[in-house]
Amino acid sequence: MSKRNKELEGEVLTWIFQVLGEPLPKGEFEDILRDGVVLCNLMNKLAPGSVKKIQAKGTNFQLMENIQRFQQAAKNYGLPQEEIFQTADLFERRNISQVALSLFALGRITQKHPEWTGPTLGPKMAEKNERTFTEEQLRASEGQVNLQMGYNKGASQAGHGGFGNTRHM
After folding, report:
1. pTM of the model
2. Residues in domain Calponin-homology (CH) (predicted)?
């Protein structure tokens, strides 16, 4: 079990309910999100119509389907597959910290969507910073030997002796 970060979980819950425009409910992080209804509603706020069917009540299997629908919608929204938590991480409370990290990443991804004007989460996303150099600038360093090319300022192993011997000073 990885160490849980209650501060991060609180930040994620606050963000989710700011997006939904609802008051933050009382209860544990995993209990609020476990049935997947809040997660599906979140995705429908971020990308309207991304989750078509939401089971408010039902068997465990039906509630787990909510989580799977959320995961698919998050992936379609741009959240990388490796950042999406497993269904069992949340539903069976196996790895709640991964759930929090995944939702934090989703909050960060909203910054890449110009149509989203609501709250975001986490630090500002880096933007592409392409640099162009002239041919002259690229050729300027060709005659130099830098330290990564094996130049060792005259140091050698002369006088070391053979392999396994100590160095005599």
Report:
1. 0.71
2. 6-110
Tokens of 102: 């995944």
Q: Is 61 inside any structural domain?
A: yes
Looking up tokens 């909203």, which residue turns up?
A: 110
| Residues 52, 60: Cα–Cα separation, whole Å | 19
- The answer to whether residue 14 sits within a structural domain is yes
For residue range 99-145, what is the model confidence (pLDDT) as tens digits?
Answer: 999 999 999 999 888 888 888 887 776 777 888 888 888 888 777 66
- Position 130 in a domain: no
Is 146 a domain residue?
Answer: no
Minimal CA–CA distance to 60: which of 28, 24, 93? 93
The domain of 65 spans 6-112
Phi/psi of residue 98, nearest 5 degrees:
-65, -35
Q: Rounded to the nearest 5°, which phi and psi values hold at 150?
A: 95, 0
Cβ-based neighbour number of residue 49 at 10 Å: 8
d(C-alpha 20, C-alpha 35), whole Å:
16
